[in-house]
Amino acid sequence: MRKLALTMTCTTCVYSAFGIFSRWLQNMTAFEENGLYISGSLWGIVLTILCIAAAGTMFGFARYYKKNLGLTCAPDPGVAFAGSGLLHKIIYLVIALIMAAGSVMLLITAGDAEAPLGMDFSGLLRILALLGLLTAGGFLGIAGGANGKEAPDGSPRQAGFCLAATLPIAFCCFWLIVSYRQDAVTSVVWSYAPEILAIACSLLSFYYVAGHAYGRGKPFATIFFCNFGAFLCFVTLPDERLIAQQIMFFGIAGMQLFLSWMLVSGLRRREEIFARFPNAPATEDEDDEVPPPKPEDEFEPMGPGSEEGEENFVELPGEYIDPGTAKTEGDKK
Questions:
Q1: CA distance linking residue 333 with residue 323, whole number of Å
Q2: Distance between CA atoms of 6 and 231, rounded to whole angstroms?
């Protein structure tokens, strides 16, 4: 499954490269000097088409894994996101350090953020920085705790997974509030829409990641939103904002790509998963439709010889099937 993970991650990175380039050209050519957007700009159309194509491709990957290959993930987060080896540890440590570094920088430089006259967002940004530090720790908890060992229901290990998975959700929720407050007076949708979409999609991806910790995993929704969220985070990088926030966007994108990679790498055929976890509930996006009953199962047997064909049944005359009590010869007289 490493090949599948590599293919999807590389596809996301290719789309991200084109998205960064398109957004950069849009910022260079599609806005007037006073900040108004030039209607009908080519690069705005190109970026829109690129986002739709990226979403369609990532949805196609997830559907292919589910429908065509018949894959699913382990119901336990410690197994579903499991990884091993020195390179695995180095990668998630570097991603967590990037996120932590951006958060520390934002904590220091929050007062330098641009704000309309009479408004100050430094307090909100410092709270966001603290949540970013907690998010880096939560990511370490998920990536480091997923070592192939199971986390039984109600165990401290499962509680740790739940806490670690909840922290990025709180971070993204608060970042949405901060972004809305900063852009509340902005009338140009294209100036803030990519950022809002990136944060919202990242929120959904971490929401679905947390679902695995709470026993409500949806692996293919997780894969889709992690990759699409990472793509949108990369697309926002050419925008003007504090360098600390740029680093945090990069860190969030790295987290989502890493979690998607580990989840895709851990996919197995349903038969293998059900054989290892016979008592575990199936993930919610499994096909659990009940097959239609066979014709022979629709009616209960009526006794010996009832399995024979229709030709052995005798049709009764109408006088014997009148409603009420059956008639006898005495009644007729």
A1: 19
A2: 15
Each domain of the chain, given as residue ranges in start order, spans: 2-31+42-276
Most confident of 1-10, 138-147, 193-202: 193-202
Residue entry with tokens 């010869």 = 329
Burial 64-97 (b: 16+ CB within 10 A, else e): ebbeeeebbbbbbbbbbbbbeeeebeebbeebbe
Least confident interval from 3-7, 125-129, 146-150, 162-166? 146-150
How far is residue 311's CA from residue 321's CA, in Å, rounded to a whole number?
A: 20
Longest dimension (CA), the chain: 110
DSSP state letters, 141-206? HHHHH-SS----TTSHHHHHHHHHHHHHHHHHHHHHHHHHHHTTT---HHHHHHHHHHHHHHHHHH
According to DSSP, the β-strands at 71-72 and 268-269 are antiparallel
Over the stretch 295-306, which tens digit does the pLDDT of each residue have? Answer: 444 445 555 555
Coil, strand, or helix at residue 31? Answer: strand
Give CA–CA dist 81/145, Å, rounded: 9
Classify 236 as helix, strand or coil.
coil
Q: Tell me phi and psi for residue 316, to 5 degrees.
A: -80, 145
Say whether pLDDT at 283 is over 90.
Answer: no
* Separation of first and last alpha carbons in the chain: 85
CA distance 229 to 168: 13
Give 37's strand partners.
31
- The structure's pTM equals 0.81
Tokens of 271: 């038969």
